[in-house]
UniProtKB/TrEMBL annotation:
The lineage of its organism: Archaea, Methanobacteriati, Methanobacteriota, Stenosarchaea group, Halobacteria. This is Glycerol 2-dehydrogenase (NAD+). Its cofactor is Zn(2+). Residues 8-154 form the Alcohol dehydrogenase iron-type/glycerol dehydrogenase GldA domain. It comes from Halopelagius inordinatus. Binds 1 zinc ion per subunit. It comes from the Archaea. Glycerol binds at D121, D171, H254, H271.
Length: 363
């Protein structure tokens, strides 16, 4: 198997960079469609449209419906085609960006990824997570291209909901454990290749950055402040986590997340919040020592992340429910098989149960 590393062409991050989007996007095309929901349009709609028009890029907006589902992708594809767009700018959270990626693939145009929250590692990747219209995980869709440009305005991120910023920390925290598991097992990354040393090192840098800066960055975002820690963690949540998971590989944490989406009760928890339960369960599954598991639980609590099933809405889960989660997590297509040992549903169920108990004890 060959080593494969892929990434977006350009990454721009900083306070106020939304105003510069036209300068960068002007190199990509002449007519842009901005896809964002009504809340995000209120925040960045005018800035983005004015900046594009100042760079002589036509700009139309399409309001995002809220779910990265097949019907929504079809609707937005039709709207962008009708507008004659050669650039799609996806602005908002992971689902808006994932929808924009699908539209870009359908129309073979350029894409600008503009996360307004540092809540997931979706902005830099070339895959979409597709959900049903009811919010259940359906499948991953893989595309041949990455966004041409990823642009992150940290003033917008710091102004956003702290809960989503924290969720980004959780999604990024999983990156190192999953990339490292894949590296040790010589498993496959998202591109069907083996991890490069570069991807493995980026994933570790992601982890170190979070351990050094996450707590203070969350305090800053709570107050709408942009500090060096906010810049560091925004980069970790977005760029390092994005490159780290795609080129480094996913393992148990994200499969357990996908399993947890089977339970209706978890639908109000964010992606990152569910991933954190996946991360703690992965550590137990791998037999990490008590002190280390406790350290990660305490770090999660310091950041304000869930450490028990009840924290993500699942009170007193039945054995059947946990079996359902574990079975889904161990589907043949799941990345849990990147762990460096064979994984069976019973092992996963018991790891979730035990991680939950440890979370109750140390959380
Ligand atoms: Zn994720």
């Amino acid at each position: 198997m060959s080593l494969i590393f892929e990434s977006p062409s350009d990454y721009v991050q900083g306070r106020g960079v939304a105003e510069e989007i036209g300068t960068h996007a002007g190199q990509l095309g002449e007519r842009a469609v901005l896809l964002a929901d009504d809340v995000v349009l209120d925040i960045v709609g005018e800035t983005v449209t004015e900046s594009l028009e100042a760079a002589e890029v036509g700009a139309e907006t399409v309001e995002f419906g809220g779910e990265a589902s097949k019907t929504e992708i079809e609707r937005v594809t039709d709207a962008a085609e009708e507008a004659g767009a050669d650039i799609v700018v996806g602005a908002g959270g992971g689902k808006a960006l994932d929808t924009a990626k699908a539209v870009r693939e359908n129309l073979d145009i350029a894409m600008v990824s503009m996360p307004t929250v540092a809540s997931t590692d979706a902005p830099t990747s070339s895959l979409s997570v597709i959900y049903t219209e009811h919010g259940e995980f359906e499948e991953y869709q893989f595309y041949s291209n990455h966004p041409e440009l990823v642009l992150v305005d940290t003033a917008v991120v710091a102004d956003g909901p702290t809960r989503l910023f924290r969720s980004g920390v959780a999604d990024a925290l999983a990156t190192w454990f999953e990339a490292d598991a894949t590296y040790r097992s010589h498993g496959q990354n998202i591109f069907g290749g083996e991890s490069t040393r570069a991807a493995h090192a980026l994933a570790e840098l992601c982890y170190d950055t979070l351990r050094d800066h996450a707590v203070s960055s969350v305090r800053a975002v709570e107050n709408g402040a942009v500090t060096e820690s906010v810049e560091a963690v925004t980069e970790a949540n977005t760029l390092l986590s994005g490159l780290g998971f795609e080129s480094g590989g996913l393992a148990a944490a994200h499969s357990i997340h996908n399993g947890l989406t089977q339970l209706e009760e978890t639908h109000d928890a964010t992606h990152g919040e569910k991933v954190n339960i996946g991360t703690l369960s992965q550590l137990v599954l791998e037999g990490r020592d008590d002190a280390f598991v406790r350290e990660i639980i305490e770090f999660s609590v310091d950041v304000g992340l869930p450490v028990t099933l009840s924290d993500i809405g699942v009170e007193n889960p039945t054995r059947d429910q946990l079996d359902e989660v574990a079975n889904a997590a161990c589907d043949d297509d799941e990345t849990i098989h990147n762990e460096p040992f064979p994984v069976e549903p019973a092992m996963v169920r018991d790891a979730i149960l035990t991680a939950n108990d440890l979370g109750e004890r140390y959380g």
